[in-house]
Amino acid sequence: MDVFSRLPARSLFRMDRVFIGAMILAALALAANGWIAAHPEHDPRAPLALNGPEGMATSRKLAALRTDPAQCRGALEQAEIAFDDLDPVGEGACRRDDRLRVVPAPERGLAFAPARPETTCAVQAAMAWWLDKSVQPMAEELLNSRVARIEQLGTYSCRRVNGADTGRWSEHATGNAIDIAAFVLTDGRRISVQRDWWTGAGTPDAEGTFLFAVRDGACDAFGTVLSPDYNALHADHFHLDQSPRGFGSFCR
Questions:
Q1: pTM (2 decimals)?
Q2: Where are the domains of the chain?
């Protein structure tokens, strides 16, 4: 008589349930792995695809680029976003080791005036994602046009926050920030942060709604997003930077 024939029927039933449960868990694990393989945007281990869909792991992947310039450049190359690498410059708190210029791509809206700002790679990667996933869809939906270029007020300034004499250094000191003043559409319209930001009086028009929407969209890509809602110093622009903040952002 084998060992199983001597077991009570209740024990055999329990063993069957354990075996069946283990098989179900194994099948679910295989199915989950297959689904993740087919949807790398949800896999935190997979490289970020700037041209791909947004997923559960996207914010984590974008945040990881802030401290990994090599991985960031790989993401730009994979997305076929051309750029010129620049040599490090500066000293002390204003040393800029991570420095590049993106080749204008007006079809994506990745074009600036003044042209070709110098920033960290993480700023340019977030800008490309923001344009593709927030700015252009909102422009099409709310303004019936696309963004042709962005007017910017600057990226690099060797100074402390708010130009103070003391305190922490601004992300502009290392080119890890960009200030956005306006969006110029393909139909010629210019959407200005200073003129078109909705101040809360009455009902926002399409331009004001667009600016609110893209401000909120930037919070998914950048470490810091400051708008006219933050203070008077930002009444005419969005400040966007890639300050390391884990996987979240400061958005106002």
A1: 0.85
A2: 1-38, 48-251
